[in-house]
Amino acid sequence: MPETGAGDDEPDYAEQIAGSADVHKGAWQRTLDDMQAMEADMEEEGWDVVAIGAGHTAPTNPDAGETDRWGFVHVVPDNKAEPFEAAVETGAFPQYRVFRNEMQGRVFVLTQLLDPDSETAILIAGNFEMRHAPGLVKTALKEDQMYTHVQTLDGTHLGSFRHDDVEKFFPDPHKYTGYEVEFDGVLDDEE
Q1: Cα angle 52, 40, 82; round to 5
Q2: pTM
Q3: Position 1 in a domain
Q4: Range(s) of the domain holding residue 111
Q5: How confident is the model over 103-144, as pLDDT tens digits?
Q6: 184 located within any domain
Q7: Span 38-50, pLDDT tens digits
Q8: How many domains does the chain have?
Q9: Is residue 28 part of a domain?
């Protein structure tokens, strides 16, 4: 192993990890800020909005876990469970939009679930590492559909949504086996 001296210009591994954590923390905060701005705009337009920042988001395939559920599994705080369930009871949420951004191997996603009849919207922000998504991407492409699942930390299932456009979630699905790092500082709308 080559010796590293004090004069090296390359940061050590710990510094790289710390730097990535700061970058990811900033990107997550921007995602939450975007969600809050979207919530305010929609409420001003007359929508009833439930906005949730997931504590954890897992790109899950059928071979992982104890259930055959697959898709994005968002774990939400207990205090958001009741407002989420109340919103789900109001409609079918036939429309959805996906906003996403990639930064240093991590994807930041904001899913907008819409029920125009009741003017109810659910906004769910989450993030995940691209390296954990290949199994989900493969399943979603094979099945030609995608799912969003919401649950609490104790595993209580709060609701699920089926989506018919995989590419809204994975615009370039083949890069998940050898992901690239990109970021432009703005969430991209994948309509």
Answers
A1: 35
A2: 0.81
A3: no
A4: 14-179
A5: 888 999 999 999 999 999 999 999 999 989 999 999 999 999
A6: no
A7: 999 999 999 999 9
A8: 1
A9: yes
